[in-house]
Amino acid sequence: MLSIIDPNDRNSSGINRRDWLRIGGLNALGLSLASPLLAEGESSITVEQAATFGRVKNVIYLYLGGGPPQHETFDPKPDAPVDLRGPFKPIQTNIPGTQFCELLPRTSRIADKLAVMRGLSTDDNTHSTSAYWMLTGFKYQGPNARELHPSDWPNLGSVVKLLKPSDTVPFSFAWLPEPMVANPGVLVSGQSGGFLGSQADPDRFTCNPHSPEFAIKEFSLPGDISPLRLNKRAGLLSQLNDHFATVESKANVENYSRLRQEAYSVLTTGRAREAFDLDKEPEALRDRYGRGKWGQSVLLARRLIESGVRFVHVQWPREPGDLSSNRPMWDTHADNNNRVKDVLCPQFDVSFTALIEDLEDRGLLDETLVVAVGEFGRTPSFNAAGGRDHWGPVFSGALAGAGISGGQVYGESDKNGAYPLSGKVLPQELCATIFHLLGISHEATMLDRFNRPLRICDGEPLYHLLGSKPATDARQEATGVVTEIPDFRPIYEMKTG
Fold first, then answer.
1. 117-152 burial, b for 16+ CB within 10 Å, e for fewer?
2. I need a surface site. Which of 167, 202, 300, 447 has the fewest CB within 10 A?
3. How far apart are CA 202 and CA 162, in angstroms?
4. What is the pLDDT of residues 240-258, one digit of tens each?
5. What does the mean pLDDT of the chain come to?
6. How far is CA 252 from CA 159, 198, 211, 238, 434, in A?
7. What pTM does this model have?
8. What is the model's pLDDT at position 261?
9. Are 265 and 272 in contact (CB under 8 A)?
């Protein structure tokens, strides 16, 4: 399978993978004859901007499913009426003139590492279709993207998986700790390889890294097979059939075969196995990320990119009981203020800053892009249940890491946080930026199922955000109050009111 072929290996026809790409051997997978790794259409940009092309080796995509409120995160509105701005106050970040909500005190201390976008927009208030646009760069052509289709546009990570495969581990695009669902068993579009085929699907690891029994059961050896025995016998893959019977019952034959091949490679690759062993991390560092499913998943993402995985999507997890709740994940239709104060913002604030600082301490931030976004924002006004509803016209997100000029805010919303005033950012522009940083031209083309050439992305990179140095050297003390890391209890245990 493509995901486990060494780039230097020869296929049966004697052509290596690089040649295969160049001559169009991947046409059947949807890639065109044109080299997707060349930025021929980016000749008009500055030398500084051009230097960021291919600056990124890995991507950690923190997906805040449900729609984080812009007011309680990166875009507080202290001058708006109280029934719009809410009870929380702005705080000064370590960048003069830049304020975040007081619920992000740790994040305010690393604002110099961030490029914050306050003008993200989809004008789409539906979870599934707005998410599809954010995760693929293309609008969904239909009323509701609540089903995976072979004609779907591929997820960003799927494109990366095919064009930038890992040379150290057998999988390049990891998705954890759970799939994106509308309801139990309903997989939302935008999280697959789409028309690139199942070989471009992410390797989904449904898990709870916070659990004391945490393990990836699909990648565990049966009790009677040792790693040494497995390595000695190439034909031993057949002995794993029974072990993967549950996978086979839930997937088609093609996907099952791919999973088996990749699982076998994981079993025989010590580096891949060890990436999932969080017990190797100091307890203090695990505490620093937050002892919960989300925080430990973010830590696992760092371990995966450190092992060689190119693209890791971390899905904000559903909590026990949230399917019967009107405030699941970031979807705070009720009790918004308590939810963001007690659960949501603290978890994000803790894990996001821990990730950025941890990557920097390890020298990985210079080669890793961190993306933190949801599918839309929340309404400026509160509803009768004390919640904020879906709002696609404007919302906020943040970028950090390789090729990002930190310490800046791009775009502005109006005084109520309802609509963009300047710096409007569409999903395809964010996607183009990610591709640019990875060294994939946003003007490259792919072939759809009907062999029609389609641009890999409809947007232009956000060159304003890019650079090799901070946007400003000015610094100040952040004013946010950092308290103890909270006890992240599930939704059904939280006091509401």
1. bbbbbbebbbbbbbbbbbbbbbbbeeeebbebeeeb
2. 167
3. 11
4. 444 444 444 444 545 545 5
5. 83
6. 22, 10, 30, 18, 32
7. 0.85
8. 58
9. yes
Cα distance between residue 296 and residue 277, in whole Å:
11
- Residue 323, number of CB atoms within 10 A of its CB: 11
Residue with tokens 């906020």: 396
Q: Note whether 101 and 417 are within 8 A (CB).
A: no
Return contacts of 361-364, CB within 8 angstroms, 24+ apart: 362/306, 364/58, 364/302, 364/305, 364/306
* Per-residue pLDDT reduced to its tens digit, 342-385: 999 999 999 999 999 999 999 999 999 999 999 999 999 999 99
**Structure tokens, 459:** 């947007």
Give the pairing type, strands 58-63 and 368-373: parallel
Give the homologous superfamily in CATH for domain 53-213+278-468: Alkaline Phosphatase, subunit A (3.40.720.10)
CA dist., res. 398 & res. 322, Å (int): 26
Cα–Cα distance, 122 to 133 (Å, whole number): 8
* The residue type at 124: D
d(C-alpha 17, C-alpha 36), whole Å = 14
* In the chain, ranges of CATH 3.40.720.10 domains: 53-213+278-468
pLDDT digits (tens, 9 = 90+) for 30-87: 344 334 444 344 445 678 778 999 999 999 999 999 999 999 999 999 999 999 999 9
Q: Which residue is it, tokens 């997100």?
A: 397
